[in-house]
Design brief:
The complex is a heterotrimer. Chain A is 73% helix and 1% strand. By secondary structure, chain A is mostly helical. Chain A has a two-stranded antiparallel sheet with strand order 1-2. Classes of the chains: A mainly alpha, B alpha/beta, C mainly alpha.
């Protein structure tokens, strides 16, 4: 019996807790990409850099707060910085909308053209961000680091396996739940949210119903700004901030959005967790896990790992490609909000 | 004086002209039906009347005012409503949400209008929580008409409301349209089922290659042997 | 070429003259060595952008996996030219071959099952997954130990199987072939996708390819790099010690060390230039052939073309393979020039999106435009560093020299090249979407 509990604790520690956190970050990112897709109808390659921008602003604000001694210990200062970075990201997006995206939206260009435009924005933002903050890694997870430490857990329970939960992981999951609930409430219950869904469903009919497209687009960018800066900051809080990682992050995020069904918010959230959990399950070494469960004689010798940990990122690409080939509409049949 | 009129309209897509001086008119509480062969420009005429296509010549007047320069949304505000021929509902939204979106420009309470519409189309009441995209063709057309009615328009423009609908449902839809006209709403309707439509029409227009070929009351068009032969299949 | 009129000929000539002028300025004011270094990479960039132009400009295919094909070409250059590591082959060569054989057999089996079970619903997926998984597991049993013994064979100097020890120029062909082969499979599975999904899928697959290169040390030495890849041109040391060269440098009047370095670069330049010109000639021929016209007709109206009975997907596959092969050749040339294979350099920013900027800025659909784009964009990619630095110097003028902020921005100034590229791309898309040398308007003719 105790072996089973140990095995489950092992899984919880190495797969469930980290994947819940990483999945939440992907889910928020994918939700942002999906919203842009549903309303503006293009795949936004710049999304990773938008997340990076939000994170950068968070870091600047945190530095400012730290230098004047403001903190909310044991919670990380990042939570205090979030409103500012959200505002800044929204302003950035509205400027980008006005100067870049709006023109193509009005021209009703092909999705590919729009996508290339977003590559231009990606380049621009990448340069801008790296110029401002540099390329080195920055950690900003101040405050209490752990909610439960592995050693504490072992002491408390007397188990052989420990379970550690970092503050940043818990915060990530809680903030994600709150934000996702808010977004769904907004889309399904408010007049403005419904008008966004209507616009995404049938643009021409929305116009005929007197829905103002400009307003819909601005609100979309505002929501995307919230989602992107929160997702980026949470990711940076959890794993440290390196500007170029956010470029790489775009693919797992696309994978999450597409696996769930691009344009479908429920799919985006589910896709985030699917990607995170498959990465963890496929690269986990099951040796210890099996040792607990199997009789002694059967205990495995090798690591019992499906793929080595180096391939973690690659798994999301594989899933992405498989879903694109087998079921391009995604698991939740996405198309509209 | 006619309530709503497009006079001598010329319009097209890009360089190709589709409408070559066509005129359409309707009075308060009356039904106008436009018929004609496929590609005659019926849908184009509707779009031109609703301002979704710029006129290169001609005029559109509403209650005596020239509205040629108004954008479609502004015409909605004036009291016009339009049901396009295709994709005329929000497929992923529920029936009720479709109605709410139809009344989007109204700031007052929508519930009484919704209740009236449910009286008119009882089936929608039972299906109000279902996504419009999941409804049958006939039910979807009802949603489309109902959506347009949400602004309590003075004129309702319908582009083939009975397309893909069984004869029984079609008769029912025509009955509803008559009901709506009786409430004082002017109706402009394009129809493939020319015979039945002309039977309920106060005025009929036969459009061929963007021009008015025949204009008369519905019943006299039905009686006109030339029209019967060429457009109503004998 | 017949379509060309006098005026656009002149414009193209003028633009290339301007480009040469810019390079000459670098030669006179910075150094000739730098100028040739830039020129060589300009030539390689131009080859890549020629390949991408084939895909995007002729056929409207958005291939975001360019970096993967460049890496495949690079891998070929390394595998063809490096001498085999006999000891490693003895240690694990058989295991690797057997493992590969098992993988190939299971792939073929899976393919047959896939074809045979057409229309049998879900079952098909499960059988195929089952076969692939079983094949993979068996192969791991064989490969695992083989890989370990190969990677532990003289790990500091080799730890991989080495290559075939064949001539360098052959490797460029092989690079093209390898890229073409992989492009064939990738194209087969992705070309049915919508354009933006195609981009994401190709990007994803390329990332997987590069991941494999980074992690399969027995094949590529992974991140430990393979250096000392043989050259098609003489080594500087050899030149410096040969009498004729000493005489030559004396005659020209520059130091023998500098002369040797210039000479080597010039050799590369002439090789690269020949490749570029041959490919350009071929591309121009293809563009103006019935095949090329049909490609562009398909691009401009896919529905009409497929309604006319044109097999759109197989045409797309052809051009996808050819374009990727050209990128592969460029990738092989790049590794030859660098003398080393390093899988970590293949960033999408540098090897996919930058090439895109080249094609779009130059003029998609026009080979001369694509080449000019390759030159101009690479030139500014390098010189943007100087521009960025100057910009920072000016902007931070009010700050004192010792200010840490100024120091920080001088450090990060090179990143401004990304910003400048983004700006250039956005400005072109908005105000000159057809590029500097626009496509000859087949579109107008067909309308
Ligand atoms: N968006 C458009 N762009 C270009 N041409 C169009 C467009 N819509 C319609 N046309 C052309 O205009 C002509 C008239 O089309 P319209 O839709 O008005 O015909 P219709 O009378 O409504 O036909 P139907 O009975 O089939 O609905 C057709 O030749 C059609 O090809
Ligand atoms: Mg029509």
């Amino acid at each position: 019996m105790i072996d089973y509990i140990n095995a489950i604790t092992l899984l919880a520690n190495y797969i469930i807790v980290p994947s819940l956190a990483y999945g939440s970050q992907l889910a928020l990112g994918a939700l942002g990409i999906t919203m842009v897709y549903a309303v503006l109808r293009f795949s936004n390659f710049a999304h990773g850099e938008i997340m990076s921008f939000g994170t950068m602003i968070s870091i600047f604000i945190i530095w400012l707060f730290q230098s004047i001694g403001i903190s909310i210990n044991p919670l990380p200062t990042a939570l205090l910085a979030l409103p500012f970075s959200i505002t800044a990201t929204i302003i950035l997006l509205l400027i980008l909308d006005k100067t870049v995206f709006r023109y193509y939206q009005q021209q009703r260009v092909q999705p590919v053209t729009f996508m290339i435009v977003s590559v231009g924005v990606m380049f621009f933002l990448a340069g801008f961000i790296r110029f401002l903050i540099g390329t080195s890694k920055k950690n900003f997870d101040d405050g209490e680091r752990f909610i439960v430490k592995a050693s504490q857990f072992k002491q408390m329970t007397g188990l052989a396996e420990g379970l550690s939960i970092r503050t940043t992981q818990a915060i990530t999951v809680i903030v994600t739940i709150l934000l996702v609930i808010f977004i769904f409430w907004f889309l399904n219950k408010t007049r403005t949210g419904k008008s966004m869904r209507a616009f995404s469903d049938n643009e021409d009919l929305a116009l005929l119903s007197g829905i103002n497209p400009e307003r819909v687009i601005i609100i979309t960018w505002i929501l995307v700004g919230v989602l992107a800066s929160v997702a980026g900051t949470l990711y940076g809080l959890d794993k440290g901030y390196k500007p170029f990682v956010y470029l790489q992050l775009v693919l797992p995020i696309f994978a999450a959005a597409i696996v769930g069904g691009v344009g479908n918010p429920i799919g985006a959230v589910a896709g985030g967790y699917i990607i995170a959990f498959s990465e963890a399950f496929i690269t986990f070494a099951y040796k210890r896990f099996l040792t607990y469960l199997l009789p002694k004689e059967w205990a495995p010798e090798g690591l019992v790992q499906i793929l080595s940990t180096e391939y973690k990122f690659a798994i999301s690409f594989v899933l992405l490609v498989i879903v694109l080939l087998v079921r391009p509409t995604g698991l939740f049949r996405g198309k509209t909000l | 004086m006619t309530f709503f009129e497009g006079k001598n309209m010329y319009a097209g897509y890009g360089a190709t002209m589709i409408l070559n001086g066509c005129s359409i008119s309707v009075d308060r509480g009356k039904i106008t039906v436009i018929v004609g062969p496929n590609g005659a420009g019926k849908s184009t005429a509707m779009k031109a009347l609703f301002g979704m296509l710029p006129l290169s010549r001609g005029s559109v007047t509403f209650d005596g005012k020239d509205i040629v320069h108004l954008r479609p949304e502004q015409r909605v505000m004036l009291g016009m409503a339009y049901v396009p021929q295709t994709s005329n509902v929000f497929p992923s939204m529920t029936v009720l949400e479709n109605l709410e979106m139809g009344g989007f420009i109204r700031i007052d309470d929508l519930s009484s209008t919704i209740a009236e519409i449910f009286d008119l189309f009882p089936i929608l009441k039972t299906k109000q929580g279902q996504a419009a995209g999941e409804l049958s063709g006939g039910q979807r057309q009802q949603v489309a008409v109902a959506r347009a009615l949400m602004t309590q328009p003075k004129i309702l423009m319908l582009d083939e409301p009975t397309a893909g609908v069984s004869p029984i449902v079609m008769d029912e839809l025509f009955d509803r349209i008559i009901d709506i006209a009786k409430m004082g709403v002017a109706i402009v309707m394009v129809e493939q089922n020319a015979k039945q439509a002309l039977q309920i029409a106060d005025r009929g227009f036969v459009l061929v290659q963007g021009e008015n070929k025949f204009t008369d009351t519905g019943s006299s068009l039905l009686g006109n042997s030339e029209v019967r032969k060429a457009f109503l299949g004998g | 070429m017949k379509l060309w009129n006098q005026k656009s000929n002149k414009k193209v000539f003028l633009l290339f003259a301007l480009m040469s002028g810019a390079l000459l300025i670098v030669g006179f004011f910075q150094s000739w060595n730098l100028m040739l270094a830039i020129l060589n990479l300009c030539l390689i960039s131009a080859v890549m952008s020629l390949g991408v132009n084939l895909q995007w400009g002729y056929a409207g295919l958005f291939n975001a996996g360019i970096m993967g094909f460049a890496a495949l070409g690079g891998l070929a250059a390394m595998l063809v030219t490096k001498a085999p590591v006999i000891g490693a082959w003895h240690a694990g060569g058989f295991g690797i071959l057997l493992g590969m054989f098992i993988l190939v057999v299971s792939a073929i089996l899976a393919y047959f099952v896939w074809v045979r079970l057409e229309g049998r619903g879900k079952k098909r997926y499960w059988y195929v997954i089952f076969i692939v998984v079983i094949g993979y597991i068996i192969s791991r049993f064989v490969l695992g130990p083989a890989i370990i013994s190969i990677e532990s064979f003289e790990p500091s100097s080799s730890g991989y199987l080495g290559g075939a020890g064949l001539p360098v120029l052959l490797s460029w062909f092989v690079g093209g072939l390898l890229a073409a082969l992989v492009a064939f499979f990738i194209g087969r599975i992705t070309l049915g996708l919508r354009s933006d999904y195609l981009a994401i899928a190709t990007l994803g697959i390329s990332e997987i390819v590069i991941f494999i290169f980074k992690n399969e040390d027995w094949l590529t030495r992974g991140v430990k790099n393979v250096t000392g890849i043989p050259r098609p041109v003489p080594y500087e040391i050899e030149l410096q010690s040969s009498i004729w060269f000493q005489n030559l440098s004396e005659y020209i009047g520059i130091g023998v060390i500098q002369a040797s370095s210039l000479f080597v670069k010039l050799c590369y330049t002439s090789l690269f230039l020949s490749v570029l010109l041959i490919l350009l000639w071929l591309c121009e021929k293809a563009l103006n052939s019935p095949w090329g016209r049909m490609m562009r007709a398909i691009r401009d109206n896919e529905t009409a073309a497929s309604a006319m009975g044109k097999d759109v997907t197989s045409r797309h596959l052809q051009i996808f393979v050819i374009g990727s092969a050209i990128v592969g050749i460029a990738g092989a040339m790049l590794v030859t020039l660098d003398g080393q294979f390093n899988p970590t350099i293949y960033h999408p920013l540098r090897f996919t999106f930058l090439i895109w900027v080249m094609v779009i800025v130059g003029g998609s659909g026009n080979n001369f435009g694509a080449i000019l784009g390759g030159f101009v964009v690479w030139f500014f990619w390098i010189e943007a560093e100087i521009i960025g630095n100057a910009l920072v110097q000016i902007l931070t003028l009010p700050l004192s020299d010792s200010s840490s902020l100024k120091e920080h921005f001088l450090n990060t100034a090179p990143q401004l090249r990304l910003l400048i590229m983004g700006l250039v791309l956005l400005l072109f898309l908005r105000f000159a979407p057809r590029g500097v040398i626009p496509e000859k308007t087949l579109r107008k003719l067909s309308e």
